[in-house]
């Protein structure tokens, strides 16, 4: 494949280690919600359980899937209130000094890429709300790499959606003025990889947040979802780009 013009990155657990924070708070909210609606056939979710089932989805889509799976209903106003509450609580935690960490090695990897190939355009393409993504980038000092090139399926689109819908990747490509084959995406989840691949973008699957048997399982999941190259750590990003280019 030709040298890409744009490098597109998921945010949560790809650039920053935010998913544990998000799903811990989300689990507490979800458990209260299920109890309030008398749902008896659902587990008492831990953050880890909730993340295993719903990683890569924003909270609005997670709520929609919970209603389908456990047979209860929320009004649009209730959904809006819950989404706002989850987001406000999470952003407060992200903004607390020391709470959010960047993924290991991401700063060094992006710095090397920008130094060697300054013509690359870097952008963030996320399912999460723009306020969450921007707070995450600011808290981890990643803002300068992306400027205003931050796109949210929950906020940027005329109709909010979430990965695996490819709409946010198509939106980002349009905003950046590049074609799918002129970009490379980096994703850590099934839904994110599916989204990028469905938009026609060659995709690197990032395994850094996973450990042990879970890493082996996610290697299979991301490959099945269409990731063409797998990356264990950010130190291997340039090598992953080279491997992707060699595949043609």
Automatic annotation (TrEMBL):
An example Gene Ontology biological process: DNA repair
Please provide, alphabetically and separated by semicolons, the GO molecular function terms listed in this UniProt record. Answer: phosphoglycolate phosphatase activity
Q: SUPFAM superfamilies, from UniProt?
A: HAD-like
List the Gene3D superfamilies. HAD superfamily/HAD-like (3.40.50.1000), Putative phosphatase, domain 2 (1.10.150.240)
Provide GO CC annotations from the record.
cytosol
Q: Where are the transmembrane segments?
A: none
NCBIfam families registered for this protein in UniProt = HAD-SF-IA-v3
List, alphabetically, the PANTHER family matched: PHOSPHOGLYCOLATE PHOSPHATASE
Name of this protein? Phosphorylated carbohydrates phosphatase
Report the source organism: Vanrija pseudolonga
Q: What taxonomic lineage is listed for the species of origin?
A: Eukaryota, Fungi, Dikarya, Basidiomycota, Agaricomycotina
